[in-house]
Structure formats: structure tokens, C-alpha cells
Amino acid sequence: MKTFCSAAKRWLAPAGLLSLCLTGCLLAQPSAAPQPTVTATPPPPSATTPALSYSAVHVDGPYIAMTFDDGPSEKLTPELLDILAQYHIHATFFVIGKNAAEHPEILQRAVREGHEIGNHSWSHPAFAKMSDEKVRAELQKTDDTIRAALGGRPVLMRPPYGSITARQKKWINAEFGYRTILWDVDPLDWKRPGPAIVTHRIVTETRPGSIILSHDIHPGTIKAMPATFDQLQAKGFKFVTVSELIAMGRPMLPKKMGDEGPTPLSSPATSQGPTTVPAVSPSPGLTTP
Ligand SMILES: [Zn+2]
Q1: 46-252: CATH homologous superfamily?
Q2: Distance CA 273, CA 252 (A)
Q3: CA-to-CA distance for 252 and 140, rounded, in angstroms?
Q4: Which of 74, 119, 176, 204 is deepest in the core (most CB within 10 A)?
Q5: Which residue has the higher pLDDT, 76 or 39?
């Protein structure tokens, strides 16, 4: 894949691992360097100036990204992969390093089937309260595990609980090349409200450019997916990986509402476009596993 290979050159060439270029699209991202040239007045974010962080992306079409956190789960993630295959949907998995180390074969299957893998830390701590050294160790150990499983590095990172500071986003991008990926649709599936409610929340809150949070470690979330996918596809939405969604990002321009897809871009999150969002802790104190 073209985007994979251009990213792979950047990340893998120094390690002499180019021959490990996978057919799956693990590392897709625009080819701009992580650290832009410093200028007196940096240009505003645009489609060609990748942002450090996204909670949604301003896109012209009905494109959205499903994301699944905290796996892989030995039992549930393969079930989810079966469902995604039936619907021809590519998703993004933000994996816990510990779980990935136990089930590299699930990561390999996911990438083989067109999904993207991102780093979700080794043990799921809240970064914002931690020293740089500890955050670095959490990310590095998981990065190493993903690379050992797949032969390539991720380009996306999601901080557990969305807990991260603006300063951390910057040095993590500079050191690891990661973009920080948050979300604008949260069905609170970790509270296990039942599949029908998970589906309803996702379907009613999703807009073009949405990044949808969910977890492939809860049975109810997996059960909710067929109806969720049916209803989102009936509304005209098309599913892409987060890196694909970012690659479609367009600068914000004055625009008429309601002419960009199945639903207007009316939520505050999606109207921000591809831009750096402030540090957020959408769910402080959550105790998801
Ligand atoms: Zn998580």
C-alpha cells in the first residue's frame, strides 16, 4: 500500500526492516515530518499541516471511523473481526500492550484484514498525572510489542481516559511520531448499558468525520455492532480507519450547513476540523479495565 510504504520508509528504514512491509495498512498516514520547520509565524492547520491531536476530522463526505479500545480480547476481538468482515468495515484498534503481548496473532489477523492498530499504553494509566519517564515507558513497551507482532510501528496513540496534557501531546509526537486520537462520540459502553442503548447513542451522535469510541472487551458492545453498522450504513455513512479519515481532512472554510453528507456538521466537536484540541479528560476517574 502506498501510504503504508511511505510511512514505512520513514519509520522502518533506519532499522533495516523495509522488507517487512506488510500488506495491511498499519501505518498509513500523510508523509509530513512529525516536526515541522520552525518559522516565525507558523501557518494555520490545514489538510497539509497535520495536527497533533484529533477528536473528529472535518471531511467532505460521509466518512467516519470506528475505534475499539483496551483489547485485544482472546474471545471477543475475533468475534468482532468476524462481524467487521461481514460488513466490509475497516476499524482502528487501540490496543493495551499487555494484551497485545498475549495475543499477537489477533493483531496480525486484524492488520491482515485491513484494520489499523494504535498504541493505548501498556497498562492503562492516566498520562496527565504521570512523569514523562513513566509515560515514555508505557508507550515504548507497547510500541515494541506491536512492532514485534507486526513488523511495523503504529502512528496513532490514544491516551487512556483521554487523559493527556498539551505538552505531552507535543513531546510524544516529537519522540514517537504519534498523533493523539481522542473521540467525539462516546456511547459509554464500558458502563454496560445494554446493546440497544450502545447502538442508539452511537447512531444518534455520529456525524461526518466522527471518531467513535468503544471497547472490544465488553460483550454488550460486540452484540451492539451489527445493528449499529446496519443503521449507520442505512444513513449513508462509510467506515474508514482513523489514518484514512485524517488523510481526508480538509481545512475549515465558511460553508453552508447540511450539504456535506447524510447529516449536517452541527456538533461542536466536528465543527473544529483537523485542529489541535485542548487537553481533555472526558471521563476522569473512569475505571475501565
Ligand atoms: Zn482504554
Answers
A1: Glycoside hydrolase/deacetylase (3.20.20.370)
A2: 6
A3: 34
A4: 119
A5: 76
Q: Give residue 161 CA to ligand 1 midpoint distance, Å.
A: 6
CA distance 134 to 267: 35
Cell numbers of 267, please? 456538533
* Contact assessment for residue 126 and residue 163, using Cβ atoms and an 8 Å cutoff: yes
Q: What is the pLDDT of residues 254-281, one digit of tens each?
A: 544 444 334 333 333 333 333 333 333 3
Grouping H, G, I as helix, E, B as strand and the rest as coil, residue 148 is helix
- Residues marked as catalytic: 69, 215
Give the amino acid at 71: G
**In the chain, where the domains are located:** 46-252
* Count of C-beta atoms within a 10 Å radius of residue 67: 25
156 CA distance to ligand 1 centroid (A)?
A: 14
What does pTM read for this prediction?
A: 0.75
